[in-house]
Amino acid sequence: MTAPPHEAHPAGPGRALPDTQQGMRRRNLARVMHTVSAEGPLSRAAVASRIGLTRAAVSTLVDELIRTGLLEELGPERPGRVGRPGSALAVSARGPAGLGAEVGVDHLAACAVDLRGQVRARAVRYGTHRGRSPEPVIEQLAALVRRVVAEAEGEGLWPAGLAVAVPGLVARDARTVVRAPNLDWHDADLSALLPADIPLTVDNEANFGALAELWLGEGTPRDFLHVSAEIGIGAAVVVDGLLLRGTRGFAGELGHVPVWPDGPACPCGGRGCLEQYAGEKAVLRAAGLEPGEDRVGLLAQRAEAGDEEVRRALRAAGTALGIALTGAVNLLDPEAVVLGGALAGLAPWLLPSLRDELARRTAGPACPVSVSELGPEGPLLGAAHAVVRAVLDDPAAVAERG
Ligand SMILES: [Zn+2]
């Protein structure tokens, strides 16, 4: 699979460059950027040997990347090191930065990540958005983004793009929130509400969470299912390092996979969906707890303290997750299932029943289930890194704008 899944996502990775001499030069610039980003600091000679171009060709590319501020020279390599001395190259810690933003049901967040992957500015605002119309919420988000941009600019960075994670279905135009049930948003075009001078991508939070896992997770495979939760349950399917988006961009709605076909009615119109058993509301109800501020923290705290009712509710949620995931695993044969978002914090009590159910029901050896270390930060970081990756994937396009 190559570029098509990302065509409608201008700040997403994997854009195809034309097969012309110009396209070749741009591809080679990208190869240099990716190599230095992954393995730097590196000398020009080391870059040349990594990507199989002559040292002269690499020098021309490197000079261009230094001129446009995407790479920097760290000065002569320390004496005493083996090999010829040369100036070590590193990805610039100034210049373009990726802006990530997140619309949560109970919070808004924004951050700026530099090309080295470091978070350089960050802002969060708490407060529920349930039932609020998109306009005032996005206005507050825009204010957070502006605050982060001002802070980043103070450190010599400028925004190369903005990616926004939302808890809902996003059309393939990467602008329109078609449906966000927990916010009660329908067909909201966010591009009209956000700063027009920064290239924008909007995507489902589960997708950005999965990309964060792919790019930042320790030893994450290139074929995996990422399951996450905030209020609802979402999943993202990563195939050979790319998101599987589906025809309309709605792939991954694991929360609405039926677990018991005659179960309780779900707002989606179905019955007995996974969310009715393993969604936050359902688990709180089963545990006899009231929805409050830090719901996941409360569940974890009670389970930790040995509250049998809470533990039973989480075991049941794990079983329901195991049943729903059995369908997905049998269909897609991923290398692993990764639990992220709020689910990661509850993993100790969800995992045993989830694994049992999955092992009992899947054909062949059970698919390993692991827990994300990024936790609730995943979608925000994934969004910012999507912009950073787009810069590494086509540095020439960004240099033209800078
Ligand atoms: Zn449903």
UniProtKB/TrEMBL annotation:
Residues 1-16 have a biased composition (Low complexity). InterPro entries: ATPase_NBD, HTH_MarR-typ, ROK, WH-like_DNA-bd_sf, WH_DNA-bd_sf. Residues 30-81 form the HTH marR-type domain. Residues 1-22 are annotated as: Disordered. SUPFAM superfamilies: Actin-like ATPase domain (SSF53067), Winged helix' DNA-binding domain (SSF46785). Belongs to the ROK (NagC/XylR) family. PANTHER family: BIFUNCTIONAL UDP-N-ACETYLGLUCOSAMINE 2-EPIMERASE_N-ACETYLMANNOSAMINE KINASE, ROK (REPRESSOR, ORF, KINASE) FAMILY. This is ROK family protein. It comes from Streptomyces cyaneogriseus subsp. noncyanogenus.
